[in-house]
């Protein structure tokens, strides 16, 4: 029986074999990898990945799809975690000594940012991540300072990851086709993120980008004096989207330092 995509789960099933092969090649799974796929859907990508893996994990919310996956794949090779990936403890997946987790998935557009921040909490346990996301989201993730798309998502994720947009995926590659283009992004955790308190960095970045059109001196009024902004190596007349990650980290460290 054909599975009808459910809007409430943000389901768009990738079916284009050329695209699937390109994604699989980008991931380059090795037999002993500990790999988890978020939202396997009908299992198109799952099947291709399993050809190279001894076994893999998947996290799927839709119980009908869980039942379909259970019937389709060998339970000794596919470990299915039925539940919400946003609440799933990815650190609970057992990993061999010296190994790290590899994460892949076609993330529903309605949970993409929360999912990325959820996974950022375990970045130190992860080898790499390959995701299909809305193209505009990936462009924001990889944006450089000075770009119109550079913002809170850029800074917070670039603090933890080296990221690269690999290629664009057209709507026609999906059933049903979404109204937007998608993109594949590779995310490799930074071995040693610039030292700072994450909560402080998040607070600074959120306040800075809450009024993008203002200069950073005005955006951060009440949190920092102009002298402190200068101390962090920032021209107070710059706009938030021109300030680099290292300078936001410097501000976060000033915020946490004893006054």
Give the SSE layout.
Blueprint lengths: L12 E2 L2 H11 L6 E5 L5 H7 L5 E5 L2 H10 L5 E5 L18 E6 L5 H9 L5 E9 H8 L9 H9 E9 L4 E2 L6 E8 L8 H11 L7 H4 L6 H6 L13 H12 L3
Parallel strand pairs: 2-3, 2-5, 3-4, 5-6
Antiparallel strand pairs: 1-8, 6-9, 7-9
The stretches of 5 or more residues where confidence is low (pLDDT under 50) are: 1-10
What topology, given as strand order, has the largest sheet? 4-3-2-5-6-9-7
Calculate Rg over CA atoms: 20 Å
Tell me the span between the first and last alpha carbons.
66 Å
Largest sheet: 7 strands, mixed
- Shape descriptor: elongated
Number of strands: 9
Structural class: alpha/beta
Helix amount: 25-40%
Order of helices and strands: EHEHEHEEHEHHEEEHHHH
Give the overall average pLDDT.
92
Q: How many alpha or pi helices? A: 10
Which features would summarize this protein structure in a list?
7-stranded mixed beta sheet, two-stranded antiparallel sheet, alpha/beta, elongated, disordered N terminus, 259 residues
Description:
There is one protein chain. By secondary structure, the protein is of the alpha/beta class. Helix content is 34%, strand content 20%. Strands 4-3-2-5-6-9-7 form a seven-stranded mixed β-sheet. Strands 1-8 form a two-stranded antiparallel ribbon. Strand 5, helix 4 and strand 6 form a beta-alpha-beta unit. It starts with 12 loop residues before the first strand and ends with a helix. The N terminus is likely disordered.
């Amino acid at each position: 029986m054909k599975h009808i995509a459910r809007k409430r789960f943000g389901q768009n099933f990738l079916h284009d074999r050329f695209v699937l092969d390109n994604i699989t090649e980008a991931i380059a799974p090795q037999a002993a990898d500990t790999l988890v796929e978020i939202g396997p859907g009908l299992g198109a990508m799952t099947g291709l990945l399993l050809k190279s893996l001894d076994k893999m994990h998947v996290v799927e919310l839709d119980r009908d799809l869980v039942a379909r996956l259970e019937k389709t794949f060998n339970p000794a090779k596919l470990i299915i975690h039925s539940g919400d990936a946003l609440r799933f403890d990815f650190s609970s997946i057992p990993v061999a000594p010296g190994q790290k987790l590899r994460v892949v998935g076609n993330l529903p557009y309605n949970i993409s940012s929360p999912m990325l921040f959820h996974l950022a909490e375990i970045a130190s346990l992860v080898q790499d991540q390959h995701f299909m996301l809305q193209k505009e989201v990936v462009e924001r993730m990889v944006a450089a300072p000075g770009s119109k798309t550079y913002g809170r998502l850029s800074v917070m994720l670039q603090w933890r990851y080296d990221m690269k947009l690999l290629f664009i995926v057209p709507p026609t590659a999906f059933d049903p086709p979404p109204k937007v283009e998608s993109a594949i992004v590779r995310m490799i955790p930074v071995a040693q993120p610039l030292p700072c308190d994450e909560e402080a960095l998040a607070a600074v970045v959120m306040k800075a980008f809450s009024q993008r059109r203002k200069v950073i001196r005005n955006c951060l009024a009440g949190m920092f004096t102009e002298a402190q902004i200068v101390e962090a190596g920032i021209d107070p007349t710059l706009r938030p989207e021109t300030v680099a990650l290292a300078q936001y980290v410097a501000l976060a460290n000033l915020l946490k330092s004893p006054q």
